[in-house]
Recover the amino acids of this structure.
């Protein structure tokens, strides 16, 4: 089985990247291939990176309250590119009130402060595998 | 640097500088630990060099710390209302939180600002916004702290013009501009320009204020964000003081006499969970800085030797789970700051792991400070922990650890080259990762998160900021652009570009541009045209 490939993305103007970096390392430690986009990526750049990297999942880190703007855009762009099999999860300061809306657009993995790294690893592993993504097996 | 383990022992040198989550201390300290402590040399009375015990002889006897609650959200009017409430409730200073577009020098109608206007702070795009923000607040009577860095000079120019319109003399204005760009590259990452031209903006503010706004704190050299990004206490202390050294060096290199600007340099530290370590950190900071200023820079004015600092309780320690626990954490942290001699303090609100604070939560945070100030009697004695075996040993450990790191950065050629080499950024990321691992394994307890977990924690109300502020701010900006003299705006922006390409102080052309109602985004873009933008290579 090829390694799960994850793009960790930091959209918006916010520069608080502690969470993005910690989760990137944790996923890598768990045996995944991790591509970190760096700061201030637009939804277009994030989706482009995911396609280019043949990613199984995108992890979006947002602490600034811009998730309602960024997440729907990412989902729309993925659908437009025929890449809606890419799992999208989001982590950061996400108010409870916004979770149903994120679920509705297809983001089931919403990780609020205090979430353990292991539970995020488990979520991505389970959902990427369950998604039965038809990618060519890696050597 | 090795991964610290539970068995790591305290002490100076390697163990003290190791960026571990559990920099353990021994269970007992005694007179032997202080055998070579010299009271006059290492501590001295409060108010005397090296100020380990505080910069004021009477501690809080003469004046309590300033209770300065950081706040801002939505439109300038909404934030103005919150300020008036905080002042009416006994707050003694203002502290402005700007939104991300403002922090990044982008106007509310900039495509990159979408979804961010008014969310993490207040939106200020041009002079009329700053006037609304400060409406009815007498700037010659209230001290204002502004958390703004990359566009600090532009926002300060707006503040000065508002003061001028109020009839407040600039020489009487007092407050603080954060203006600390180095920690942006290191930790918070809200930079615009490359480090070297950014440092010129900082030293231009130093020079301008020395002449025209002499009571203004021109910079708040900040460890807060460095700690929040994951640094240990030793790293926070070391990187912050080394940043301070870099600013003084740049000021001196720009031709300023050290005693002309150093007395207006202030600091900003985190108040984190490990109670005694934090107290020791503040005491070590004062001692280190006094020696740096006197010996490294030859400062002769004792005001240059005194490290004054603001403290804020640790946002990163707050939990979304069982949010009421945060009130207790904040109280303990705030107490450490007071015992360490903070000159000004912000206590966090209980709901800050969930969003911006509600009015009630913000008020409770202020009340936390007031209970410490007026009920505990803690402020009654100056440096009440001075001389304690444990606290003096820790103070020395932190000082020695920080000195090692400062030496390492000196060897790299200073902080700007160290940043360009990614040194502090990498050290902090390593520490952040180790802390997370310690929480994952349970080695480090977080009550309510990895221990004593509730199945059904109580919900708290949170402040919800929708897109109304964004719409209003964009409409207003359009009006500002329609009603101003475009020719005058263009002329002032051209003058700004010319000054940036040359060596003249940038404050006067910025003030002219503000008077012409140039927007923050326009002023920042004019300088982008000349200096370009900084981009960090992504690394994990």
């Amino acid at each position: 089985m090829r390694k799960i490939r994850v793009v960790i993305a930091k959209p918006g103007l916010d520069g608080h990247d502690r969470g993005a970096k910690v989760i990137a390392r944790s996923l890598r430690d768990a045996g995944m291939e991790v591509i970190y986009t760096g700061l201030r990526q637009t939804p277009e750049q994030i989706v482009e990176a995911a396609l280019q990297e043949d990613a199984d999942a995108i992890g979006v880190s947002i602490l600034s309250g811009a998730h309602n703007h960024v997440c729907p855009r990412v989902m729309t762009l993925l659908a437009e590119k025929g890449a809606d099999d890419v799992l999208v999860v989001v982590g950061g300061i996400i108010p409870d009130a916004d979770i149903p809306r994120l679920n509705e657009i297809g983001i089931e993995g919403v990780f609020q402060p205090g979430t353990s790294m292991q539970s995020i690893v488990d979520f991505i592993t389970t959902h990427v595998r369950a998604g039965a993504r038809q990618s060519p097996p890696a050597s | 640097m090795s991964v610290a383990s539970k068995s790591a022992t305290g002490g100076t040198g390697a163990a003290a500088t190791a960026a571990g989550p559990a920099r353990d201390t021994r269970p007992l300290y005694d007179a032997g630990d202080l055998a070579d402590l010299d009271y006059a040399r290492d501590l001295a009375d409060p108010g005397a060099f090296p100020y380990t015990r505080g910069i004021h002889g009477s501690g809080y006897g003469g004046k309590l710390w300033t209770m300065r609650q950081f706040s801002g959200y939505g439109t300038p009017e909404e934030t103005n209302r919150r300020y008036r409430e905080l002042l009416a409730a006994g707050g003694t200073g203002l502290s402005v939180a700007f939104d991300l577009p403002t922090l990044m020098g982008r106007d509310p109608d900039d495509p990159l600002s979408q979804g961010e206007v008014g969310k993490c702070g207040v939106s200020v795009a041009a002079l009329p916004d700053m006037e609304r923000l400060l409406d009815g607040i007498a700037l010659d009577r209230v001290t204002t702290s502004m958390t703004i860095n990359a566009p600090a000079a532009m926002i300060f120019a707006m503040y000065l013009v508002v003061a001028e319109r109020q009839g407040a003399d600039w020489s009487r204005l007092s407050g603080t501009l954060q203006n600390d760009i180095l920690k942006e590259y290191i930790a918070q990452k809200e930079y615009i320009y490359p480090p070297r031209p950014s440092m010129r903006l900082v030293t231009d503010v130093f020079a301008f204020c020395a002449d025209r706004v002499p009571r203004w704190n021109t910079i708040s050299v900040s460890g807060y964000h460095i700690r929040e990004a994951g640094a240990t206490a030793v790293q926070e202390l070391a990187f912050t003081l080394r940043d301070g050294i870099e600013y003084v060096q740049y000021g001196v290199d720009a031709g300023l006499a050290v005693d002309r600007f150093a007395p207006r340099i202030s600091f900003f530290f985190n108040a984190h969970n490990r109670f005694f370590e934090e107290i020791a950190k503040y005491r070590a900071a004062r001692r280190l800085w006094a020696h740096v200023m006197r010996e490294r820079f030859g400062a002769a004015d004792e005001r240059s030797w005194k490290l004054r600092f603001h403290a804020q309780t640790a946002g990163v320690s707050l939990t979304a789970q069982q949010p009421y626990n945060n009130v207790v954490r904040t109280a303990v942290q705030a107490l450490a700051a007071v015992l360490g001699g903070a000159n000004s303090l912000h206590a966090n609100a209980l709901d800050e792991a969930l969003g911006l604070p509600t009015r009630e939560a913000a008020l409770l945070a202020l009340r936390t400070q007031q209970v410490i100030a007026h009920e505990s009697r803690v402020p009654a004695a100056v440096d009440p922990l001075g001389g304690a075996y444990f606290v003096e040993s820790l103070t020395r450990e932190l000082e020695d650890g920080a000195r090692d790191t400062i030496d390492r950065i000196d060897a790299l050629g200073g902080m700007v080259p160290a940043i360009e080499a990614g040194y502090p950024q990498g050290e902090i990321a390593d520490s952040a990762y180790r802390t997370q691992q310690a929480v994952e394994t349970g080695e480090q307890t977080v009550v309510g998160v990895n221990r004593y977990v509730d199945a059904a924690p109580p919900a708290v109300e949170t402040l919800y900021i929708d897109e109304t502020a964004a719409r209003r701010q964009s409409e207003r900006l359009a009006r500002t652009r329609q009603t101003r003299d475009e020719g005058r705006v263009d002329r002032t922006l051209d003058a700004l570009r010319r000054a940036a390409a040359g060596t003249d102080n940038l404050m006067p052309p910025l003030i002219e541009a503000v008077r012409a109602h140039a927007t923050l985004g326009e002023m920042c873009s004019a300088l982008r045209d000349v200096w370009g933008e900084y981009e960090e290579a992504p690394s994990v």
About this structure: Chain B touches chain A through 46 residues (CB under 8 Å). The beta strands of chain B are 66-71, 93-97, 144-147, 175-177, 216-217, 219-222, 265-271, 309-313, 344-346. The two ends of chain B are 17 Å apart (CA to CA). Chain B has 22 helices and nine strands.
